[in-house]
Amino acid sequence: MKMKLQKYIYLGHAALILFIGCAWAAFKVPARKPGTEIKTLVIDAGHGGYDHGCMYGGANEKDITLSISNKLGKLISDSFKNIKVIYIRQSDSFVELHERAEIANKNNADFFLSVHVNASTSPSAYGTETYAMGLHKTVGNLLVAKRENASILLENDYQTKYDGFDPSSAEGHIIFSLFQNQFLKQSLDMAAHVEKNFKQMNRYSRGVKQAGFLVLWKTAMPSVLVETGYLSNNIERKYLTSASGQDSTAMVIFKAFVEYKNEVEGKK
Question: I need a labelling partner for 35 at 20 to 30 A (CA). Which of 12, 172, 208, 268 fits?
Fold first, then answer.
């Protein structure tokens, strides 16, 4: 497996110039001034509509992400009247991955936050992890990105919309993950706040990670994807489907956002 992954990384570097050229031609990140006040936040409830996400024990990822996202948005709106909260979806609707980034970009958002639920073939896997757009460093990160990116298979003409990207190809994901935008440090800072607060709430944190997520690819602002737990784990599924578990998860992300906001704006 190690040798196979090294082979993929080699292929990725070999195709880097071609890939970046194509990606940059299709999309160019506009310059933004760091350290400015956060006025607009986009909250993306993962999946939706006929895209159920992962499904275990009668629970759907799309329902959990929607509930957590709505709770999170309310916490922020109630606490910060000067922040505009934009929801990618507030109902059980399907939104294509590229459209999610476009909504954030058109509204000149200051941060993009995508909420998801994890899954594994091992029922013992558990814990939270928060991702920024970047290079896959483990096979596990690659598998998470492949599962989340598979949503584009439900879209019409996805190969044209995503520059020929094949979500079933490991090589394609390796090459794609080499694309990083200018907001990587800010994204990683927010991810660190999220995972720190999960630890403080006695959740097991699997750490801050990087991977090639299509939903983060074209966002022209700092952005993270939060995997709030494993639906494939019986204990975490019970927690994530409960009102109290969803409230606690929303509160964790809210506290992390407040810390990140104060840090970016230079406040104590």
Answer: 208
Mean model confidence pLDDT for the chain: 82
Q: Is the pLDDT of residue 32 over 50?
A: no
CATH superfamily, domain 2-22+39-264, is Zn-dependent exopeptidases (3.40.630.40)
Rounded to whole angstroms, the Cα distance separating 200 from 15 reads 42
CA nearest neighbour of 198 among 261, 250, 134, 137: 250
Q: In the 8-state DSSP scheme, what is residue 51?
A: B
Helices (H), 27-95: 61-79
pTM equals 0.79
Model pLDDT, residue 130:
98
**Burial of 136 per CB tally in 10 Å (0-12, 13-18, 19+):** buried
Range name among 63-72, 88-97, 99-108, 127-136 with the lowest pLDDT average: 127-136
CA 148 – CA 258 distance, rounded (Å) = 27
Domain regions of the chain by residue span: 2-22+39-264
3-state helix, strand, coil in the chain (%, to 5): 50, 15, 35
